[in-house]
Design goal:
Blueprint: E1 9-24, E2 33-51, H1 64-79, E3 92-98, H2 108-123, H3 130-136, H4 145-152, E4 155-158, E5 170-174, E6 181-187, H5 195-204, H6 210-230, H7 233-255, H8 262-273, E7 279-281, E8 288-292, H9 295-310, E9 318-323, E10 331-335
Antiparallel strand pairs: 1-2, 1-10, 2-3, 2-4, 4-5, 6-8, 6-9, 7-8
GO molecular function, one term: kinase activity
Domain GHMP kinase C-terminal: 224-306
Protein name: Beta-ribofuranosylaminobenzene 5'-phosphate synthase
Length: 336
């Protein structure tokens, strides 16, 4: 077995992701879920590793729950991929520089697991694929977007899980147009459904109509993806919104409506009145976004929405920011 890298700093930084919808919750053809999404630059999980005496140190102030989650992920690596690594070679110190917000619909859990898995694999000179790390770290039970953007970024469609799929199978990956911008709407007072509540929601919701799955697949293949490749934001946005409507109607009983946050729903409705068509909630939210054709249009929309927020006391907890797609995977650096 190769000895771990000594006297080096290993750093891994991975971008957040948006989950724009499922392809097939019906599962009639033997595959469940299937997802549409992309990597974005609004937030990053950035962690570095140095050799130490096998304890965890954070450079940022973290809650006990986050520290426990990180320690559990380190343990998960050494129970699976690193189970044959001797205890005396596991002396690692992790420095947390930034984290994607939890339960906001940005893929924080998957990116944290993959960053920790990749950084430990690099330290121990193990050449594991990202899907293998994801499986070992118990990710990819539904969406494969965060797994499939980790290596290359971009816009991704996966085929979900079949009977023998350890993680969702990637079908399509393409650069997101560099000039397009996303106006992000984040509600600091809400969190998306997660954990056991999420599992129960999937169990209790009615069967997803087959006709709706067929419609989503048709929209994805014959409108969304061609519009992405041809950089036609009007057709792209129209497809996103129609897919979101079908998905949102299904999940409305669990999340309290088309959108998890009523404040964001109000702002999205205003965007519709302004003529925007590409609007989406990521996963269970509350983070939502509006697709715009360039930075100038994004800036104008942010100014419009900020004026609305400033005049309405019920909207004060909404954060607005502009984001772009990320067309490269996680950045991995090793410094002596």
């Amino acid at each position: 077995m190769a000895s771990p890298v000594r006297q080096q700093i290993i750093s891994v930084q991975a971008p957040a992701r948006l989950h724009l919808g499922f392809l097939d919750l019906n599962g009639g053809l033997g595959r469940h879920f299937g997802s549409i999404g992309l990597a974005i630059d609004s937030h990053f999980t950035h962690i570095s590793l140095t050799e130490n005496d096998n304890h965890f140190l954070a450079e940022t102030q973290l809650s006990d729950s986050v520290q426990n989650k990180i320690n559990k992920l380190i343990g998960q690596f050494y129970l699976t991929l690193g189970k044959d690594i001797p205890i005396d070679l596991r002396r690692v110190r992790l420095h947390v520089h930034s984290l994607i917000p939890e339960h906001a619909g940005l893929g924080s859990g998957t990116q944290l697991a993959l960053v920790i898995g990749r950084i430990l694999a690099t330290y121990h000179q193990r050449d594991y694929t990202t899907p293998r790390i994801a499986q070992a770290m118990d990710r990819g039970k539904r969406s494969g977007i965060g797994i499939n953007t980790f290596d290359r970024g971009g816009f991704v469609v996966d085929a979900g899980l079949g009977v023998n799929s350890p993680t969702p199978v990637k079908l399509f990956q393409h650069d997101f147009p560099s000039q397009w911008r996303l106006v992000m709407l984040m509600d600091k007072n809400h969190q998306g459904i997660h954990g056991q509540t999420e599992i129960q929601a999937f169990q209790q919701l009615p069967a997803f109509p087959l006709l709706h799955s067929q419609k989503i697949c048709h929209l994805t293949l014959m409108q969304l993806l061609p519009a992405l490749i041809e950089q036609n934001i009007e057709l792209f946005g129209s497809a996103v919104s129609e897919i979101q409507t079908l998905i949102g109607q299904h999940f409305a009983p669990a999340q309290g409506g088309q959108y998890t946050s009523k404040a964001i729903a109000k702002l999205i409705q205003h965007c519709q009145s302004l003529g925007f068509s590409g609007m989406a909630q990521s996963s269970w939210g509350p983070t939502s976004c509006v697709f715009t054709e360039n930075q100038s249009q994004a800036d104008r929309l942010i100014a419009e929405l900020r004026g609305m927020i400033n005049s309405d006391s019920q909207l004060q907890n909404i954060e607005l920011l502009s984001a772009t797609g990320v067309n490269q995977g996680a950045a991995i650096t090793i410094d002596d």
